[in-house]
Amino acid sequence: MSRHQNLNHVYPNAQQNQPMFSRHLTAFGSHWLPPTQAPLGGWRNVHFPSYPCRPGVPPPPQLSHPTRHLSGAFQPQDTHNTNWARLQSKQHLPPGFPFHGFPHRHFQLGLMECSDKEPPYKRRRSSDERAPGDRSKGSPKREYAPRQARSAATSPNCWFKDGKPPPPGTSPPRQALELKRQWEDFSHCYKSRPQSGGGRREPPFEFSVMSYNILSQDLLHDNNYLYKHCSSSILNWNHRLSNILKELKEHNADIMCLQEVQEDHYEKQIKPSLEALGYQCEYKRRTGRKPDGCAVVYKKDRFSLLSSHPVEYFRRGIPLLDRDNVGLVLLLRPTGSSRPEDCVCVANTHLLYNPRRGDIKLAQLAMLLAEISTVSRLPDGSSCPIILCGDFNSVPWSPLYSFVRESRLEYDGIPIGKVSGQEENPRGQRILTVPIWPLSLGVTQQCQYATAPTDVDRGITNLSVQDFAEPPMAAMNRPSIEHSLRLTSAYSHYLTEDSRPEITTCHSRTAITVDYIFYSAGTGDISTQPEGPLPRHGLQLLARLALVGQTDLEAVNGLPNEHNSSDHLPILACFRLCP
């Protein structure tokens, strides 16, 4: 008997008489919810008032009570140990923000401090560049105690200096706290389709997607100044691997897009563990001597692989593209379907970190969008549904983020350091050049691969090479770039109960959102669509795993901590293929 492709089967361990996602709600704190009359049991049935919404942003669920993110009695830590800067600038506000009914406050993000020094690079030097046993030119050597060596009397989730417990006579450490995240349900916003002809109709295909930067252990070693708030046992790879695999198993997503996946750990530990859970794994290591990369894994009983396309952003001979970041694009087909329009194009990337090189980030993104446009194209010229995940190292409403969401960016006069919005006040930044990337890259200003037009394509003859070159050159000289994918975000980037910014990454120097799940919204999706016709094939957002705010993360000692072993939080969303 064929498997029903509905929400109950996105999570196959759920019993028939249980509400949707009940197992996952138990894992993320459904017992903290007060009794409700919602028909979905542990899920909160959310309702949307009629107020303005930024184009493409899903209306946030309205809660009848505050969200509880933490378990255990606690008192928030003092924040004098953190230097997180805050941004209250209208340039990061969406038009019309704040919404009616919310407090009138600016969109705030904890951004990196700005100084005249060059920003520290994540991973300054790979292990391959150092002599065996020599760490003198990299980060200071740091020993990591084995997990079993921890004392039962102390919790490694406390802010110990250099991982050492407090001296005798001081107050005992608090119990390690754990984040509790809740699912936000939107499925009730969609009308059920009527049965046609009195026959039984196949349910629409529904599936879940995760994006998660799991923090490469090699990067952790080379940037350990970011994790001085953590004890050595928390940073030990065996402890971290156990927590990460536990998270992946509990979330049980049909598709997982992972970043900072270290190659040796992937081959020996992560890949075998995921294959044992029924996943097929695709991986692309970063170019050069970088030891980590991006992985896209999917359940073999839910999808079949049609094609896999690694994308390398390094281009020899182009100074702008001398970095080793990569992307990975997969074309998947739902099990049991043979229609081309039912395919899903899934892309995963980790863009350059450097907050002062927005020109490189935009060029990398343009290369990825060109590949997605090619892979997702259907025989009739339209595109199949697209899901774009990853760590974009850019904050919400920044120029780079707006380019993804609004399909166009007018960049005349934009400083390079403001493209990603990571720094509050970047100094000494030059303006983006026109064009941003050279014509020799082979990517147009419309983020398409440049191909020489033929006589048949143009319907004309007797044209010279110069005639073909003129239109692309004219376009390259305009200070604007665009794409045709029409993507929106699965998250609204602020918390429902108090409009605080959502946080996806947090360590000792910053707490911001840089991780996203973008998707091509189809007919009837709850997000407010941009102007223009809707795509013929798209997705409907059914649910998402709620994020938390900065104070919630401060209360659990930031990231990583005893229970969360990366400096990023996983983000998850559930979708339905539009009929």
TrEMBL record:
GO terms for biological process: 3'-UTR-mediated mRNA stabilization. InterPro entries: CCR4/nocturin_mRNA_transcr, Endo/exonu/phosph_ase_sf, Endo/exonuclease/phosphatase. Residues 210-568 form the Endonuclease/exonuclease/phosphatase domain. Residues 114-145 have a biased composition (Basic and acidic residues). This is Angel homolog 2 (Drosophila). GO terms for molecular function: 3'-5'-RNA exonuclease activity; mRNA 3'-UTR binding. The gene is angel2. Pfam families: Exo_endo_phos.
